[in-house]
Design a protein that fits this description.
- The complex is a heterodimer of chains A (457) and B (394).
- Chain A is an alpha/beta fold.
- Chain A has three domains: 2-113 and 247-322, FAD/NAD(P)-binding domain, CATH 3.50.50.60; 120-244, FAD/NAD(P)-binding domain; 337-353 and 355-426, FAD/NAD-linked reductase, C-terminal dimerisation domain (Enolase-like, domain 1), CATH 3.30.390.30.
- Chain A has helices at residues 2-5, 17-28, 120-123, 134-145, 158-169, 185-188, 190-202, 308-322, 393-401; strands spanning 9-13, 34-39, 76-79, 83-87, 92-95, 100-102, 105-108, 112-114, 128-129, 151-154, 174-178, 206-209, 213-218, 224-229, 234-236, 239-242, 246-248, 260-261, 264-266, 272-274, 280-286, 291-295, 301-305, 337-342, 345-351, 358-365, 370-377, 380-387, 423-424, 439-441.
- In chain A, helix 2 (17-28) runs parallel beside helix 8 (308-322).
- Mean pLDDT of chain A is 92; it is low at 446-453.
- Chain B has helices at residues 6-11, 20-29, 45-53, 80-89, 105-115, 127-132, 134-144, 151-164, 174-197, 206-211, 222-253, 255-263, 268-278, 310-313, 348-366; strands at 32-34, 40-42, 57-58, 124-126, 285-289, 293-295, 298-300, 306-308, 370-371, 391-393.
- In chain B, the strands form three sheets. Chain B has a five-stranded mixed β-sheet, with helices on both faces. A three-stranded antiparallel β-sheet of chain B has the order 4-10-9.
- The longest helix of chain B has 32 residues, at 222-253.
- Chain B is globular.
- The chains are: A alpha/beta (457), B alpha+beta (394).
């Protein structure tokens, strides 16, 4: 059995971080069969985190963020070709160029794309951007380098905030609009979102919360010149970035019979895809942003994560499980982690901050701009976020993994007085925000309705 | 023998050449092993790592009444530790001086080349006195701005200070503490004097940078400058000596890996990481819990002395496959050679570059070299463990 699994044909759809790491791991695990990686972008796998940071600052060109390969995965790369359909019975992936690929086992790692500005005519105005791909970043960086009068960022999530931070660092005037009460509130809850708002304003961002953009204005010749807001005000700007969150690339699976929807493709802890009846497949695997998987530390809810670290960890587990028989398969249990740098702050998170009812500042203080915020749900620690205090994260990771009681025990030398008084975590319903959540709990808990899956389009 | 005398046996000078069997006993008796004197010893990787990251573990000796002066950042807790370490980092590393250590490569190579002159075929050399000691001393002198010729002066202070910081449970430490205190005060005065000479006349060294900092909010007080400079000068060479010497010793004991490195010098950075795991320069660190702390079923009471045996964690089979095998190609080598957590070695980037340069330069000469004495004579210190001399025949 094992011998068979190490041979045959494997197709990976998606040639970004998860696809590459899976391909490498398959070879590490001894897979000797044929390996094909399909990607709709024309270039080899590249890294996306620098696109909203170093690239926008002009410190790195957009085409220099190629991902280093840990080893040559000895794969056939079909780049610039979109997968358009899947026939799970015939075991074939249909491609946009009319060809098809047959497989013995398939890994789906098609990730996400940027949610476009909803009005297509306005979205097509010259000067209106989204930021997801290398080309997006190159185009936006070029506009920022040309010194626009003002940049409008729609959406105060991580991507929007990082773009605004880069603009300010370049000395550009920038307006951020967010429908929710503060930036980052959807990911970090009330207290840290207030810090984020203060940091933005201290750095000169024109931050407007509780408003939406009702229209993007053109000059009649197809150039973006400004926007109208729900409070009746107008903004003049020559660049607009719609940072509204991401859309899962699942449309090509519409007729596949897989459990693919707006929150991603549901899979088990071993990365095997479910079909629409909730039956687990044994030859279709999922990894990265496009997946939706159960996690025992968070009530076995299905998690949808848009995290770099998750893409790597899940791809490695999926690849291992693709070439190993049942009893040797591993679960994907890694704790969600992510980081962001903006406005001089280094923000790191472990666990699921939105899976919380209360928070405490366990170390440091808001005043010092250096702190550890610990999140609890029903008396146990479920997440921690550090601001300029990344070395503290390991300790809290252990508390989350062991379901330690919340609030965390006293004794830290730099423990704030406030650490003994938990306050509500104040995580809003994502529906109230401009940007989609980067972490979504998509299951059901009796006392909460965090997320309602809505059909797109 | 019972487990509650393990620390005494580990620190017994007779066991300096080979503490590894005792470390294995420590891990078997552990994870947390109480000693007869009420102190605790931990020798397993995951528990050491957990305690190094636990914000309730203090490094401040004043808690146990061991000192009255404000110690350097190595022995301070956050937030004061963070403030002073960040200030000390400004002229040394990122974000304010990102290229500083890397820019030392050329100079380190030159110093190495000069020292290599004694490595002539047929000669007997002492790797410690002829090479592994003078290299890091010269480097840290250049970096800090300390005259190299003052070495005999600060060597004496450094010896006294390092001895006073050692873990010796069986011994009355009064005299060592007194001598250490005296050395600290004299050495601090000496370094502050050097810094003061540069006030208003900045040169390209760290003492200059500290004393000429224009922003008052980022300035060290005289007392902080003394403590920081003493720490950097001592830590800048006492540990790297051991790393380089242990490296030579290990390679001569493993000729197959010596050959491998001679054939493929690109392996050197990984080989240095493996040395930091296999024969680390720092074997243990002490911590004091600020609250009762549960570790793997044992409650360590507030205020107890907790000795974390980093070198034992590096050989924990629950973390590393075949931990007693020296393997320069070892994957997943997250060793405790530089510690972990907020006190992770400040000088690690410099130590890495020095060890890579030193061993890289020595490699061509070690092909036919042999150890004159194995095991070599060791320094007294159990915490900073390394040979006092390493005579080799070229």
């Amino acid at each position: 059995m094992t011998g068979d699994l190490r041979d045959g044909r494997i197709v990976i759809v998606g040639a970004s971080l998860a696809g590459l790491r899976a391909a490498e791991t398959l070879r590490d695990e001894g897979f000797t069969g044929s390996l094909t990686v399909v990607g709709d972008e024309p270039c080899p796998p590249y890294d996306r985190p620098p696109l909203s940071k170093q690239v926008l600052l002009g410190q790195a060109a957009a085409d220099t963020t190629g991902l280093p390969m840990r080893r040559d995965p000895d794969a056939d790369w079909l780049l610039g070709v979109r997968a358009t359909g899947l026939d799970p019975l015939g075991k074939r992936v249909m491609l946009a160029d009319g060809e098809s690929l047959s497989y013995d086992r398939l890994l789906i790692a098609t990730g996400t794309r940027a949610r476009p500005w909803p009005n297509p005519e306005e979205a097509a105005l010259d000067g209106v951007f989204t930021l997801r791909t290398r080309d997006d970043a190159a185009g936006l960086a070029e506009r920022l380098a040309a010194g626009p009068q003002r940049v409008l960022v729609v959406g105060g999530g991580f991507t929007g905030s990082e773009i605004a931070s880069a603009c300010r660092e370049r000395g550009l005037d920038v307006t951020v609009t967010e429908r929710g009460p503060a930036p980052l509130v959807g990911a970090l809850g009330g207290t840290l979102s207030k810090l984020a708002a203060v940091m933005q304003r201290n750095h000169g961002v024109d931050l407007r919360c509780g408003v939406t953009i009702t229209a993007l204005r053109g000059d009649g010749n197809g150039r973006f010149i400004g926007a109208e807001l729900s409070d009746g005000s107008r903004i003049d700007a020559d660049v607009c970035v719609a940072a509204l969150g991401a859309i899962r690339n699942v449309e090509w699976l519409a007729d596949s019979g897989l459990a693919a929807g707006p929150r991603g493709i549901a899979c088990d802890a071993g990365c095997r895809a479910f079909n629409m009846y909730g039956i687990v497949t044994d030859d279709v695997f999922v990894a990265g942003d496009v997946s939706r998987f159960p996690h025992p530390l968070f009530g076995y809810q299905m998690l949808s994560l848009e995290h770099w670290g998750n893409a790597v960890a899940q791809a490695e587990v999926a690849a291992h499980n693709m070439v190993n028989p049942g009893p040797l398969r591993r679960p994907h249990l890694a704790l969600p982690t992510f980081w962001s740098t903006q406005f001089g702050l280094n923000i790191k998170s472990v666990g699921v901050p939105t899976f919380s009812d209360h928070v405490v500042i366990a170390q440091g203080s808001l005043e010092a701009r250096r702190l550890t915020m610990v999140y609890g749900y029903q008396g146990r620690v479920t997440a921690a976020v550090t601001v300029n205090m990344a070395k503290s994260l390991d300790y809290y990771t252990h508390l989350i993994e062991t379901a330690a009681s919340f609030p965390p025990p006293p004794g830290a030398a730099d423990r704030a007085i406030a650490a003994d008084i938990p306050i509500p975590s104040d995580v809003p319903d994502p529906k109230q925000l401009s940007h989609g959540p980067t972490v979504a709990l998509t299951g059901y808990l009796p006392d909460r309705r965090l997320t309602v899956v809505q059909p797109t389009g | 023998m019972t487990a509650d005398t393990l620390l005494a046996r580990i620190t017994d000078y007779a066991n300096r050449p080979d503490p590894w069997a005792l470390y294995a006993k420590l891990r078997e008796a552990g994870p947390v092993v109480r000693q007869a004197d009420g102190s605790y010893v931990v020798g397993t990787y995951h528990e050491i790592a957990a305690l190094l990251h636990d914000p309730r573990m203090s490094v401040d000796p004043r808690i146990r009444g061991k000192a009255t002066h404000k110690p350097p950042f190595l022995r301070l807790d956050d937030p004061e530790h963070h403030r002073l370490r960040t200030l000390a980092m400004r002229p040394f590393g990122p974000p304010h001086s990102p290229g500083r250590v890397d820019a030392m490569r050329g100079e380190i190579a030159r110093i190495t080349e000069e020292l290599m002159e004694v490595f002539q075929p047929g000669r007997q050399v002492d790797v410690v006195d002829d090479f592994a000691y003078p290299l890091p001393v010269t480097v840290i002198c250049r970096l800090l701005g300390v005259p190299r010729e003052d070495e005999p002066l600060f060597r004496e202070w450094s010896d006294a200070l390092v001895a006073s910081a050692d873990v010796r449970p069986e011994e009355d430490s009064t005299e060592r503490d007194r001598a250490g205190d005296q050395a600290r005060i004299e050495m601090g005065r000496y370094l502050v004097d050097l810094a003061e000479q540069r006030r208003g006349h900045p040169s390209d060294d760290m003492l200059s940078a500290f004393v000429n900092e224009p922003d008052p909010a980022l300035r060290l007080t005289a007392e902080e400058l003394a403590e920081t400079a003493v720490l950097l000068l001592i830590a800048g060479h006492e540990t790297t000596v051991n790393l380089i010497t242990n490296g030579v010793l290990t390679l001569l004991r493993h000729p197959e890996h010596l050959d491998q490195l001679r054939r493929d010098p690109d392996l050197l950075p990984r080989a240095v990481e493996e040395l930091l795991r296999y024969e680390p320069p720092v074997h243990m660190r002490e911590r004091i819990p600020l609250a009762d702390i549960d570790v793997a079923g044992t409650t360590i009471p507030q205020g107890a002395s907790v000795v974390l045996v980093l070198a034992s964690g590096n050989r924990d089979p629950k973390r590393f496959q075949e931990p007693d095998r020296f393997d320069p190609t070892r994957p997943d080598n997250e060793h405790l050679g530089f510690g972990s957590g907020i006190h992770l070695c400040y000088g690690a980037p410099l130590a890495r570059i020095e060890a890579q340069a030193a061993l890289g330069a020595l490699l061509p000469h070690l092909g036919t070299a042999r150890l004159v004495q194995d095991p070599p004579p060791y320094r007294q210190n159990a915490m900073l463990r390394g040979p006092r001399h390493l005579p080799i025949q070229l």
